[in-house]
Amino acid sequence: MAREVGIDVFIIDWWGDTGGQEISDISMKAIMDLNEKEGLGMRFCILFDGLWTQQQPPPLDATVTRLEYAIKKFGNRPSYLRV
Question: What is the separation, in whole angstroms, between the first and last Cα of the chain?
């Protein structure tokens, strides 16, 4: 349905951890796998906000670690949006 109306990019609210067991991390991989397997031509990018659920912001090193993890896991995939 998205392709029929011209939508070809999705922003995924990603809370991913660095262990690969968090649901948004698993879901991101699954939708990218399906997109690439089926040749759907969609692109995905991450909205990185999952660490800000507490009153205090997360430590900078935790944020950097998760961003590095996301870049390594998804950044080179054909389905990942690059600008």
Answer: 24
Q: Within a 13 Å sphere around the CA of 16, how many CA atoms are in the beta-carbon half?
A: 26
Predicted model pTM? 0.82
Which two three-digit tokens encode residue 16? 């991913």
Q: Which of 38, 37, 22, 60 is nearest to 46 (CA)?
A: 22
Q: Where are the domains of the chain?
A: 3-74
Q: Which residue's entry shows tokens 């951890």?
A: 17
The identity of residue 61, as a single letter, is: D
What's the pLDDT at 17?
Answer: 75
10 Å CB burial of residue 43 (0-12, 13-18, 19+) is middle
Q: What angle do CA 71, 16, 55 make, to 5 degrees?
A: 115
